[in-house]
Amino acid sequence: MTLSTHKAFISQANPSHSLRAQEAIAGFGMDTISQAGSLDAKLASMAQAGFSQVMLSARDLVGHPGGVKAAVAAVRASGLRATGFQVLRDFEGLAGPLHGYKVDIAKSMLEMCAALDSPVLLACSSVSRHATQDFDAIARDLRKLATLAMPLGVKVAFEGLSWGRTINEYTSAWDVVCRADTPNLGIGIDAFHIFAAKTPLDAIDDLDAERIFLVQLSDFMWQETQSFEDRMTTARTFRVFPGEGAHSEALAELVIRLEAVGYRGDYSFEVFNDDYQQLPLEAVAERARRSALWLRDEVLHRSAPLPAWVASAR
């Protein structure tokens, strides 16, 4: 299937098809932000679509009617494993009381992350005007965050927001991760921010695959974002699943480059979309499933796993 054919498939396929228990789509997961509804309903629709993992946010836990413990229990009962937990914002580069405040926030988020058995906490680059722009100071704070996470068995993935004050590309995020030089601090790759900032993909080849802790995939419908404000609006309201947008070729190249450097981790679909918030959960999960199958079969050319009953009979 070509990329153009896939786009037509995505737009024309009937989203009302009833989802059935389908083969697990190994290596791919959805972000809860991509759907409307309760956490329990989201988890059920993802599992029914064949996903085996989920990217969770702090709001999923603290917003659950039964509280954090009930939310954690719901995730475990769903059979889905946590890809990661998000998002710690504006942590690095602060001083005095602001720094102390953010350290307390980070400790609470790390505790929730550990309760979920999530391997990764996502921290995104600061947009605060109160934060220093000194790379060494930023690296020092990230090293401190990673040190707080280490006793809990949590890794920290640092992501450069395309509207970040100082760190706004994956290349500069990688710079400070290398400066921090601590084993449980790595980089988070987000396709949206790469395409929005127009960061060349060549630098992917310079990354250490062992330090890529999270990869989030999404696309959007136009080629350019003209300003930081445009990037923020698009990012928060109109991302689409891989293969649905204007950057399918670049997204395929990104995934292929990641595989070429040795990345063998998970791919999570982080799709903020106001339209998807008005669709049934099953319809959104089906769109995500078609994207995962396109990436698996047409981009990565991976074989589908054998059904459990066949594998056990061997």
Automatic annotation (TrEMBL):
Q: Highest taxon of the source? A: Bacteria
Q: What UniProt keywords are attached to this protein's entry? A: Isomerase
Write out the GO MF terms.
isomerase activity
InterPro entries in UniProt: IolE/XylAMocC-like, Xyl_isomerase-like_sf, Xyl_isomerase-like_TIM-brl
Q: Does the keyword Protein biosynthesis apply?
A: no
Q: Where is the Xylose isomerase-like TIM barrel domain?
A: 46-297
Determine if Isomerase is one of this entry's keywords: yes
Q: Could you tell me what this protein is called?
A: Sugar phosphate isomerase/epimerase
- In its UniProt entry, the species of origin is given as Uliginosibacterium silvisoli
